[in-house]
Amino acid sequence: MYYSYDRFSLAAINKYQYSNLGGSMEWRHLFSSSLLADLTAVYGKYSFNAVDNVFPPTAYSQKYAINHYEFKTDFIWYPGEKQTVTFGGNSIIYGLMRGNILPSGDESLRVPVVLGNETGVESAIYFSDEIKLLPRLTIYGGLRYSFYALLGPRTVYKYYADGPKNELNINDSLIFKQGEIIKTYSGPELRGAINYSTGTNSSLKISYNRIRQYLFMLSNTIAISPTDQWKLCDYYIKPPFSDQVSAGFYKDFPLTDLNTSVELYYKKIHNAVDFKDGAGFLTTQNIETELLQGNQSAYGIEMMVKKNAGKLSGWVSYAYSHSEVLINGYYPWGKINSGYPYLANYDKPHSFNLIMNYHTNRRLSFSSNVVYSTGRPVTYPLSIYYINDQPFINYSLRNEYRIPDYFRKDFSINFEGTLKARKIAHSYWMINIYNLTGRKNAYSVFFKSRMVKLTVIRCQFSVRR
């Protein structure tokens, strides 16, 4: 059983409360020396409350929660010394309570929006086989088939095919009762891997896998403090699925207690979900009017050196990655960024991490870590213009700019208590300094409008002939 509760605020304009509740029950049974069964029941709940008072006329509050009920069975079979077969299945019930958007404060003119609830069921069966063909060669193959159904009650609006999905283009509606199936999706997920030992302490691994996702995250990056919310695939939103190929080389140095690794990967995501320009997930229950789907690609390299023992221990890692999205529909309203590729919200080309632990003796130790990463992409407003006294903001291309890079260094001193073998309790003193250099890292970037007085001088010239 696990429970946590957190809350924080940004000045007096944003307030957030988060809570997590989870628990599981597991039963294992050994049928024979070669067959093992594992049955598990899992429950989890995540919820938060948010109050946004950045702009009093549009201030709002929202309560949100997601429930997760899961039952899974796993079997492990050893038909021989060099083979391991696993198979089983699972079923998950998702319950999303998207809540209501309500006005906050006396000055708020926010129109209440009922976002409603969503219920989905995901089930799957799988089979995998790992065989050691040669003393240095091991192969792995697996197949998982998943099935998903969105359940009622719900009213689904239908739109004209030759126009964008919005309230002006609704031509019909479908009403689904409690527990009635609204939409189903299914498909196979393949997995394969090859592990080849190139030496006593080194190996080469190559793998491929396909994953389908029926529950995904929506990120509102235009808020001062972005809030991410989960969303189920529905009548219009197809499940995103990805194909990933990776290769890695791993080598240990026993004499120096060093572990090293280098990994390369390439990922292609189909049916990637993103917001239209200027859209948000807090304005309408019909979220399909705010979203579009396309393709996303990502690739990168990750390197790590780790020292496990000795007075000085820790690890250092560096990663280079790149990810971009392309949503280019047939009609203009089906495009994002005018149909050109743009950086994904989490594209951070450079990432560096260093963690060090130094033990001067059995009781006194020092620790330090250094974190650096490229700032995430962001879309900036460039100018404002007026048409019939109505202001319109001109934005840059999607994710054309970046917030400043992130850098932080922490330091700590740990002093252990007495080292007696028999004592009632273990005690220690620890002094931690977070952000030792005091750098002001950008959490979010936002803009405030400012009136500028402009004086125009008119000059008139006359020409004599």
Give me some keywords for this one.
single chain, 465 residues, mainly beta, two-stranded antiparallel ribbon, 0% helix, 63% strand, globular
The mean pLDDT is 89
Q: What is the overall shape?
A: globular
Total helices: the number is 0
Strand proportion, as a percent range, falls in over 45%
End-to-end gap: 95 Å
Query: Helicity level, as a percent range?
Result: under 10%
Poorly predicted segments = none
Regarding quaternary structure, how should these chains be classified?
Answer: single chain
Question: Helices and strands: which structural class?
Answer: mainly beta
In angstroms, what is the radius of gyration?
28 Å
Number of strands: 28
Sequence of secondary-structure elements: EEEEEEEEEEEEEEEEEEEEEEEEEEEE
The major beta sheet can be summarized as: 20 strands, antiparallel
Description:
Helix content is 0%, strand content 63%. By secondary structure, the protein is mainly β. The strands form five sheets. The protein has a 20-stranded antiparallel beta sheet that branches. A two-stranded antiparallel ribbon has the order 10-11. It has a two-stranded antiparallel ribbon with strand order 14-15. 11% of the residues are buried. The mean pLDDT is 89.
What is this entry, summarized?
With 465 residues, the chain is mostly beta strands.
Write the layout of secondary structure elements.
Elements: E1 2-10, E2 14-32, E3 35-52, E4 60-80, E5 83-97, E6 100-103, E7 113-114, E8 117-134, E9 137-151, E10 154-159, E11 170-176, E12 181-199, E13 202-212, E14 215-219, E15 228-232, E16 241-253, E17 258-275, E18 291-307, E19 312-326, E20 342-343, E21 350-359, E22 364-373, E23 377-378, E24 381-387, E25 390-395, E26 401-402, E27 406-416, E28 428-433
Antiparallel strand pairs: 1-2, 2-3, 3-4, 4-5, 4-6, 5-8, 6-7, 8-9, 9-12, 10-11, 12-13, 13-16, 14-15, 16-17, 17-18, 18-19, 19-20, 19-21, 21-22, 22-27, 23-26, 24-25, 27-28
